[in-house]
UniProtKB/TrEMBL annotation:
<dbReference type="InterPro" id="IPR023214">
    <property type="entry name" value="HAD_sf"/>
</dbReference>
<dbReference type="GO" id="GO:0050308">
    <property type="term" value="F:sugar-phosphatase activity"/>
</dbReference>
<dbReference type="InterPro" id="IPR023198">
    <property type="entry name" value="PGP-like_dom2"/>
</dbReference>
<dbReference type="InterPro" id="IPR041492">
    <property type="entry name" value="HAD_2"/>
</dbReference>
<dbReference type="InterPro" id="IPR036412">
    <property type="entry name" value="HAD-like_sf"/>
</dbReference>
<protein>
    <submittedName>
        <fullName>HAD family phosphatase</fullName>
    </submittedName>
</protein>
<dbReference type="Pfam" id="PF13419">
    <property type="entry name" value="HAD_2"/>
</dbReference>
<dbReference type="InterPro" id="IPR051806">
    <property type="entry name" value="HAD-like_SPP"/>
</dbReference>
<dbReference type="InterPro" id="IPR006439">
    <property type="entry name" value="HAD-SF_hydro_IA"/>
</dbReference>
<comment type="similarity">
    <text>Belongs to the HAD-like hydrolase superfamily.</text>
</comment>
Length: 216
């Protein structure tokens, strides 16, 4: 397997931290139960998207019962305890990051989450130093599944996307990375066990297999 060895870009939610389980519960309890007018959305429809774009999608597809300001505020409020207290870091993530740095590769987080959410995770789990921390909020283009965020990330670290490994867990995230031209690793966990992630170059089951791919 010809895996690029110049940069590794990690999605945050569902890869570095197990936040998708908690976000799915929030969607079931409030977003899908009270914030939309009708219909039965699936988690797959919105997972990996920026929360502002989630509102736009739900409003257009199902109708919404709250304003965008109220929707965003609810997500921001939930994020504080979710990232600050509840989520767990991927097993071995700190050692993996150290080994990537020691191998001379650039290392980054590329996420649909806003910078302050990413900051909570970085501070809580000691993930710095990083060569790049990029949020969908930082680019003036549509987020995942569009490829722009990974095109922008590659440019920011001075590389062609083909020279970057991207680790993603959602259908939207995998699609964005593949369309950008990156070597895409789909990270399988309990929250996405049933998803079709076959667009990725390789699918790994957990951190041990991920390490094997990155250091093959």
């Amino acid at each position: 397997m010809n895996v690029p060895d110049e940069a590794v870009l990690f999605d945050m939610d569902g890869v570095l931290v197990d936040s998708e389980t908690y976000w799915h519960q929030f969607e079931d309890d409030w977003v899908f139960a009270a914030a939309i007018e009708s219909g039965d959305p699936s988690h797959e429809e919105v997972t990996g998207m920026n929360y502002r774009e989630i509102y736009d999608y739900l409003s257009e597809t199902y109708g919404t019962t709250v304003t965008k300001t109220e929707f965003v505020a609810a997500y921001d409020d939930r994020a504080q305890s979710l990232y600050g207290e509840q989520v767990r870091l991927m097993d071995g993530a700190n050692a993996l990051f150290d080994d990537i740095r020691d191998d001379g590769r650039q290392l980054g987080i590329v996420s649909s989450a806003p910078q302050d959410w990413i900051g909570i995770v970085r501070d809580r789990f000691g993930l710095d130093p990083l060569d790049l921390v990029l949020s969908a909020d930082d680019i003036d283009k549509p987020g995942k599944p569009e490829p722009h965020i990974y095109e922008h990330a590659a440019e920011a670290v001075g590389l062609d996307p083909k020279s970057c490994v991207v680790v993603e867990d959602s259908v939207h995230g995998v699609e964005a990375a593949v369309r950008a031209g990156a070597f895409t690793v789909a990270y399988r966990s309990t929250h996405n066990a049933e998803l079709d992630l076959s667009r990725a170059a390789v699918v790994v089951d957990g951190p041990t297999e991920l390490r094997e791919v990155l250091f093959d």
